[in-house]
Amino acid sequence: MPLTTLSIITLLPNQRRWGFAQMGTAQGPLQRVPGLRFQKLLGSGAGGFGALPNLHRYGLMAVWDSEEAAGAFFDGHPLWQQYRQRTREIWTARLAPLKAHGLWDGMNPFDYETEAADGPLLVLTRASIRLRKTPRFWRYVAPVSATIAGAPGVRAAIGLGELPVVRQATVSLWESARAMQDYAYRSEKHKEVIRLTRQEDWYGEEMFARFRVLGTEGTWDGRDPLAD
């Protein structure tokens, strides 16, 4: 059975230059990892969702052929060991996709069957923004994305991206599907952004995915968001 993981990586204060360089130099080693079928090393936004980068925090989203392949990487791969030595903390979630539509670089990496179950959810929304549409996107979407962190039932949220400004994603961790649905269907600002997205054709490519959280390890801002 394939496995999806998301790691939130917080670097030590003196490792900003190294971490930024990995956005390019880590691609070769990652592409050669056995059993790693899809990966994205992602930067984060200042203040969680800002257009300017946070050079201390990164994300790694990956899809593995099996749980064993993921375990071999996290337990002993030289690249991951470098990250462990240069970070203040790492939080990793093991995930099973429940629903995924759209494309990421021309494919749906989360298109495999898993069993549904109650419990915490992780939601990913990701888009490649048309260059001429970026001013409107950041005017409307960024403020709404920032409100997710304070929504009832949200345990953690962050803005991630492959490239500043034009390739952006939002990751939110919800205590239940009901909490996520209440926000999606009752937030007037959220519904307005969805309407504008369709009406103004902001995205060249987009993906929306929901995942069941199978388990977590480590800390994010000093704690496991799902521990209490």
Task: Briefly say what this structure is.
The protein has 7 helices and 8 strands, in the order E-H-H-E-E-H-H-E-E-H-E-E-H-H-E. It has 228 residues and is an alpha+beta fold.
Q: Say how many strands there are.
A: 8
The coarse overall form would be globular
Mean pLDDT: 87
Determine the structural class based on helices, strands and strand pairing. Answer: alpha+beta
* End-to-end gap: 29 Å
Poorly predicted regions? none
Q: Provide the succession of SSEs.
A: EHHEEHHEEHEEHHE
| Proportion of strand residues | 35-45%
- Give the fraction of residues assigned to helices: 25-40%
What profile does the largest beta sheet have? 8 strands, antiparallel, barrel
Order of strands across the widest beta sheet?
1-3-2-6-7-5-8-4
Radius of gyration: 17 Å
Number of helices: 7
Description:
The protein is an alpha+beta fold and 228 residues long. 32% of the residues lie in helices and 39% in strands. The protein is built from seven helices and eight strands, in the order βααββααββαββααβ. It has helices spanning 16-25, 27-31, 67-76, 78-86, 134-148, 177-186, 188-200; strands at 3-11, 36-45, 53-64, 87-102, 121-129, 154-163, 167-174, 203-218. It has an eight-stranded antiparallel beta barrel, surrounded by five helices. Strand 6 (154-163) and strand 7 form a beta hairpin. Helix 5 (134-148) runs antiparallel to helix 7 (188-200). The longest helix is centred in the middle third of the chain and has 15 residues, at 134-148. The chain is globular.
